[in-house]
Description:
This protein is of the alpha/beta class. Helices cover 37% and strands 21% of the residues. α7 packs across α8 (233-250) and α8 (233-250) runs parallel beside α10 (275-286). The termini are far apart.
Amino acid sequence: MKAAVLHSFKTPLSLEEVARPEAGADEVLIEVEVCGVCHSDLHVADGDWTQLAGIVKKPLILGHEIVGRVVERYAGRESVFAWQVEHEALDPLGVEHSWRLAAGFVKREIAEVKRLDPARPILLNGFLPMSMPVAAQQWWRTRDQGDSMSLAEDTAEIIGVDLYPCHALGALGAWTVYLDAKVDSWRQRARHVLKRAVAKGKQLMIAEGQAEPWEAVTTPPSPAGRAMASCPPERVIENYNRCLRQARETGRALDAYLFWGAEYWLLRLQAGDNSYLGAFQRILASD
């Protein structure tokens, strides 16, 4: 098969013939028809993310935004339990947040996936603003056709919630300004989503539970012996516990909780810091 291969940073990709992979017993093989270019692909190809430079194995085939034929050829695989269509669909996209997908386009995507595999549910994840300023900005940017969360609630069988309670707004020198959701905001916003899921009879999962820093730069800093304020290790546990607590109080158990930040944990571990991975291990031990 043909593939665009990265052999070294900051050099053009090479179009080559490579061996066709074989799917294992618990894997799915996707025949790629079209592949988009994510900005993360450009960062990796240019070697911008210095923390990843030591673990990127070259030659490397980039690309993860694909359209393929997996649902036609491997619909019987038990390892596939749902299909995720898009990521925070309808929300502003791009580095400068200047363009968006149309609601009709996403709905046509969903219809095509359901045609190919009518048995499996559709997962759509939406961004849940956890503070009033972020909610106001989200409404203003998406006021013409709604945002990713409203689309997920209306069209998907599984609602995925992207939850980032604390993130940086900007930085100047050693100073950083953060938006940090208060406990009252947690209760109000989380319960609202939980109740709507119950009313609509939808499955509900935390598709991205913040488990890594969200700073004012693309690559979160990793100061030795310290942690960034947007998500220190104890916040990994706190975010998880708060979500489960809100679900219990609402009477609606979460179907899943996915921790978003494993790559950051491993980078910290490589630097001799086990605190983030240790926080995750404490959660597993308590459950």
